[in-house]
Amino acid sequence: VRSALRRVSSDPSGFTLLDLIIVIIILGVLAMIIMPQIGAMANTSKINGAVWELVAALQYTQALAIEYQRPFQFQIETVGKRNLFLIKDHTSSLDNGKHPDADPPLYTYQQVYNPTDKKPYIIDFDDVASGVSDEVSTREEYRGVTIDSVPNGGSKATIEFYPDGHSGITDSVVVLSLGRETRTVTVDGFTGKVTVE
Q: Do the beta carbons of residue 98 and residue 112 sit within 8 Å?
């Protein structure tokens, strides 16, 4: 019997309560170190996605102006809690009704349709336009991203692209932020080239 007890007590294959407590403490410390980094990576990913949505819309506006050889507008609105932007056919003489058969197709107030989802090219970061969510491309995955600065200050701005691709005599700057993350999008007035810092 004594030899059997010695074998059981000297068997190293089991875990003691102390072993489990040490493992739990180590995992807790690792979680405290890693969790803020995961949150920061999520914010970086979110703001980068929002910036590329903005860049894609600017480049599409420029492409429309070149293709159709007339001005198109990229409009930004940050009034109240809004953080949205849209594309308009500036020179269209059509009334304010929907014209899906126009070239390019137009929503109300000369807003251009998005070629990918066939909805008006209105990107809303805060889902303010949820009342027309069947028609507007809300981007809930970017909720929290804010448009902090628009060209010429204020809460609304327009960047107009012309048939040769330029957007004006001065550069246009838009600043987006999320927490400590900030991105600056610049449209070169002379060339229409879009850069991100």
A: no
Interior CA angle at 43 toward 37 and 49, to 5°? 135
Within 8 A by CB and 6+ apart from 154, the residues are none
Local structure of residue 106 (DSSP, 8 states): B
Beta bridge partners of 99: 106
Question: What DSSP character marks residue 114?
Answer: P
Q: Residue 5 has what pLDDT?
A: 47
Q: What is the pTM of this model?
A: 0.78
Residues 90, 74: contact at Cβ < 8 Å? no
Which has the minimum average pLDDT: 52-56, 101-105, 171-175? 101-105
**86: Cβ–Cβ under 8 A, 6 or more apart, which residues?**
74, 75, 77, 111, 120, 121, 122, 123
* DSSP characters over 32-73: HHHHHHHHHHHHHHHHHHHHHHHHHHHHHHHHHHHHHTS-EE
Cross-strand bridge partners of residue 111: 88
Cβ-contact 197, 184 below 8 angstroms: yes
Whole-angstrom Cα Rg for the chain:
27
Residues 6+ apart with CB under 8 A from 23: none
Asked if 124 contacts 117 with a C-beta cutoff of 8 angstroms, the reply is: no
Rounded to 5 degrees, what are φ and ψ at 91?
Answer: -100, 5
